[in-house]
Amino acid sequence: MKFLIPAFLFFLPALSAQDLYDYAHSRAYARYLLQSQQYALAAEEYERLIFLKPDNDTLRTELLRAYRRGNTPEKGLQQWSKWQLESRPKSRLLFGEYSKLLLRGGFPAEARDLATQSNVFDSSQIRRTVLYADMLEQKWKQANVSLAQIPLSDKLSRRTDLEKLIQKGQKQKLKKPWLATALSVPVPGLGKVYSGAWKDGIISLLFVGVNTWQAVRRFDKEGTDTFWGWIHSGFALGLYSGNLYGAHKAARRYNQKKIKQLQHETEALVFPVLD
After folding, report:
1. Secondary structure (3-state) at 83
2. Residue 106 to residue 211: CA distance in whole angstroms
3. Is the CB of residue 249 less than 8 Å from the CB of residue 242?
4. Could you give the CA distance from residue 134 to residue 142 in angstroms, rounded to a whole number?
5. 194 and 180 in contact (C-beta within 8 Å)?
6. 104 Cβ partners below 8 Å, 6+ apart?
7. Helix, strand, coil tally for the chain in percent (to 5)
8. Non-local CB neighbours of 124 within 8 Å, separated by 6+ positions
């Protein structure tokens, strides 16, 4: 037994060196996976490295980056909540990547608050984060102001494209649902035409018009006791009411389509420049 302890002590430095050797190679392999855009595999490798070195902020930063670039920001946000880093000294690199993850994950307001309230970011990072948050929230007037506050010396990536998109957002005209409804009161279907659904508008006009005409025709010929006169009147009233609701809905649908389209354009422009 007395010979086992010295033998163990003899091999201990070798075992420790082997761990360092494995860590160095695993770190290099994780970086290779990240650079070669194998983000899911890179995330798995970084998770293993963080298990070995749980307080390494550089590893945490690179893990969040793998999640963000791999289009799985929700996993990164879940991982962040597990780390509970609020009480620790804040790393600018790590919190900078976290703010990008918030932008990518659909939380631009939180990213803006983090940048402006955490006292971690430099002025350039704050201005960029605020700009991207404004654009992702489609607050185009604020985005225009935020862009103007970024000096040319900051060398903002794709600045001209960002400026064009902001101008497009400011010029975007949305339909007014109340106006679409009001237009459909005197002329059934006109509100749908105003909202771009001109085929539905013509159908509404024909259906309401035909049933109204049939009702009037029956009443003129057979008097107020006619069964079919009241049937056509009921159809006409129901179609007219539906026409009012449909006009309001058509305007909202038009707006949602335009907003969603511009949101896709914004994400396609902003997300790649986060790096």
Report:
1. helix
2. 49
3. no
4. 6
5. yes
6. 68, 73, 271, 274
7. 80, 0, 20
8. 150, 154
Residue bearing tokens 């659904």: 197
Taking only the tens place, the pLDDT of each residue in 19-73 is: 545 788 889 999 999 999 999 999 999 999 999 898 899 999 999 999 999 999 9
Q: How far apart are CA 4 and CA 12, in angstroms?
A: 12
Q: What is the dihedral of CA 165, 166, 172, 178, to 10 degrees?
A: 140
Can you read off the two tokens belonging to residue 223?
Answer: 């008097």
Token code pair at residue 16: 């420790």
Q: Which pLDDT band holds residue 217 (cuts at 50, 70, 90)?
A: confident
- Burial track 215-248 (b if 16+ CB lie within 10 A, e otherwise): beebbeeeeeebeebeebbebbeebbeebbebbb
